[in-house]
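Researcher: Let's continue the batch. This sequence belongs to GDSL esterase/lipase, and it's 370 residues. Same format as the previous ones, please.
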Amino acid sequence: MGFWRRCTPSTSACAGVCVVALLLVALACCPTRARGAAPAVYVLGDSQADVGNNNYLPATLPMYKANYPHNGVDYPGGKPTGSLGVASPPPYLSISNTSVYLRGVNFSSGGSGVSNLTNMGQCISFDEQIDQHYSTVHATLVEQLGPRQASTHLAESLFSVAIGGNDIINRVLLSQLVGTQDQFISSLANSLKRQLQRMYDLGTRRLLFVGAAPLGCCPMLREQSPTKECHAEANYLSARYNNAVTMLLRDMSAMHPGMSYAFFDTYTALLQYIRQPEAYGYTEVKAACCGLGDNNAMFQCTPASSYCANRTSYMFWDIVHPTEITAKRLTKLRLMIPAVGLPDKHQPAHCELGIKYIYSTFAVYRSTDA
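Model: Same format as before. Here are the structure tokens for GDSL esterase/lipase:
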């Protein structure tokens, strides 16, 4: 039986931004098989989870990639160390041997949104991630394993989705977008319903959905606010979107008894840092560490950008993404996420592997070689 859970940290310190990391927290906490591990991890979404797919898109502008300085500045040679020993699912476009599909794939693309119009031509749309790439993996697994075993494999695997933030950002920034706020949220919810149903039809049964952050508080949207405080409309739309997603997930779980899910409340988690920065060691939660213009918030981090020396004191690395320290702190937490579809007696108290993966995954994403 599916369930409704809003996953928040067991302590009050959690940024909740790196989606792949959160998925591995769920993996570590959700023993879907007797030996306590899901057979594979499949990740879909935007730049929160993109580990390099956009680097294989020749027409994509650099602003939708992260494979250049100063990203990875604190890693030897600008590359992730891999010292934590936790591997990320590889980007789909990098895979040449389809046997890898059995161990998991990352389909995510920076800039993508629920709507196909969001950053169109610069990323792999969410529909394309599902209907072309995940669909191809599904067909290949059926060919390799047979229909029954492929179905079992996918049903026991963990899937992550982090999508919607770019739709909200574009709505706020692009004045030519028309329609009321209600119409906007309704349109996203209707599209997402179709997309998640398609994932279900392709075998997804265990899902972690990472909710929208308080996007109005990221440096880019603060800069659009007359007071330079959190952008009220962006935060309102983020909260409305999260409510729509949770209602959709509950409805899907009721409709499909075999589907289990968890929703990570990124909005609440991030606000804990923003509202009480000193309690978590931050001296700067408004400006970006790396960027251009006022508060480094006018354009993203590029080789021409300045970047802060005291990176451990900043919450945001660039106009929208977190610093390494935000991810690193998560490795020291005891983050509890309920086991997906399992009774409480099977839920471990802490999630060591998942916490380590938070730091490891962020290293991959911000690497200059990602």
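Researcher: Any comment?
Model: The beta strands are 6-7, 41-45, 104-106, 158-162, 206-210, 260-264, 284-288, 290-291, 306-307, 314-316.
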